[in-house]
Design brief:
Length: 107
């Protein structure tokens, strides 16, 4: 993972990526893996199925985003509508909120 985790004044964490480091690393792209099945997530349909099985529900507050909320937590996963625009920071957000279920790997 190239980048730095940064906390803002509200205690929100985000990953600030270093695009130069990715270029020196051979330009490998990141993929989201569902670890129990060792399956690469290739679409939102795949991701949605896995998240539903973990208790996540769709949240329809912002029409410009695909969002999931888990009732038992305060967590909200916000993703771009277009799967092709999914970046490693979105993948790591999913990983942090679903420990031991997803991981990000270089492809």
């Amino acid at each position: 993972m190239s980048g730095v985790w940064v906390f803002n004044n509200n205690g929100v964490i985000r990953l600030v990526e270093n695009p130069g480091a990715e270029m020196h690393g051979g330009g490998r792209r990141k993929v989201l893996i569902h670890t129990p099945s060792n399956e690469v997530i290739t679409s939102y349909a795949d991701l949605e199925t896995k998240l539903y099985s973990l208790g996540w529900e769709r949240y329809y507050d912002d029409p410009g985003l695909l969002q999931f909320h888990k009732r038992s937590t305060v967590h909200l996963i916000s993703l771009p509508k277009d799967f092709q625009r999914l970046k490693s920071m979105h993948m790591y957000d999913i990983v942090v909120k679903n420990r031991n279920v997803f991981e990000v790997r270089d492809m």
